[in-house]
Design brief:
Layout lengths: L1 H14 L3 H11 L17 H23 L13 H11 L15 H15 L1
Helix pairs in contact: 1-3, 2-5, 3-4, 4-5
């Protein structure tokens, strides 16, 4: 929907992240109202709140990844986030074995996020 796309673009611009990544995260999580981006750790009852917290999480993960590895999160060849960063992000955002993951879906988070992000980036 247009309003969702607008919110994603706004939050991505605010945090200086790739809007395609935030959109791919939305599709990967696919949560219902108040859980659209899978934000459960802090109160985020609206779509805008969910997008804001998720975008902030992506921004902090980029900073952590780059500090920890000494490498950039963006692949210089493709211009998009590299799979190593996405795996790093997923390990923290949707950890395997989390108590709020009774169906053990987090094990597929990075793979699905990479696939959806690559598809969106290729379209743009």
């Amino acid at each position: 929907p247009v309003n969702e796309q607008r919110t994603i673009a706004t939050e991505a611009a605010r945090t200086h992240i790739d809007p395609n990544f935030l959109a791919a995260l939305r599709k990967t999580e696919n949560g219902g109202p108040g859980r659209e981006f899978g934000v459960l750790s802090v109160p985020a009852p609206t779509y805008k709140d969910q997008a804001r917290v998720a975008a902030d999480s992506v921004r902090r993960s980029i900073e952590r990844f780059e500090k920890k590895t000494g490498r950039t999160a963006i692949d210089s060849t493709t211009g998009i986030y590299n799979p190593e960063f996405i795996q790093f992000f997923s390990n923290r955002y949707a950890p395997v074995g989390a108590t709020n993951d009774p169906k053990h879906l987090n094990q597929y988070h990075a793979r699905n996020l990479i696939r959806l992000y690559t598809q969106l980036a290729d379209q743009g």
